[in-house]
Amino acid sequence: MTRQLDYHEIDQIFARLHEAEPEPKGELEHVNAYTLLVAVALSAQATDVGVNKATRKLFEIADTPQKMLALGDEGLIEHIRTIGLYRNKAKNVIRMSEILVERFGGEVPSSRAALVSLPGVGRKTANVVLSMWWGHPAQAVDTHIFRVCNRTGLAPGKDVDAVERGIEDHVPARWQRHAHHWLILHGRYICVARKPKCPICPIRDLCLFEEKTL
Ligand code: SF4
Questions:
Q1: Which residue in 6, 11, 79, 192 has its CB near the most CB atoms, within 10 A?
Q2: Which domain does 42 fall in, by range?
């Protein structure tokens, strides 16, 4: 496994990612905490672009759990059938909306334990909502972040939990808040899976990946 980068090296990486993109944002469209939660839940094994296409119209009609329940299972399916695993995801969104109304007064809760108690909401989804909506320095590790952290040595780990802990333990506090978005954008557009764009990578000299492209 790649060695762990040191404090100064990690600080440099984020200083450069920050310089390239001072205010990084997630790409999933939403209008409030509820629609963010639904969008993230729908995005499992789907692209943000695909989810945005489906939710743009959906969120005009159903931007609260109450309105989603009024739309119902079949109504929701009509909007999201272009997204993978849509039947299961629709079931979860409807059940999640029922629970939000019954137990949380129709609001999205701001604790991880409450979020992961909702159907279809795992630790990663909860962390995205905590970070994007509540400004909590939670680290949601997806496939892009996992790859970047392992290639570079920023937070090497054999599974997503180890990488999540590595980011929390090793990334300086001032970068924690936006670390998720910087790493996701870096993985999506530069450190791509098959042929990373090392020649144009702003952190090339700090990255420890042994198979950099020329
Ligand atoms: S140098 Fe290459 S492998 Fe390393 S972070 Fe940049 S794109 Fe990824």
A1: 79
A2: 33-134
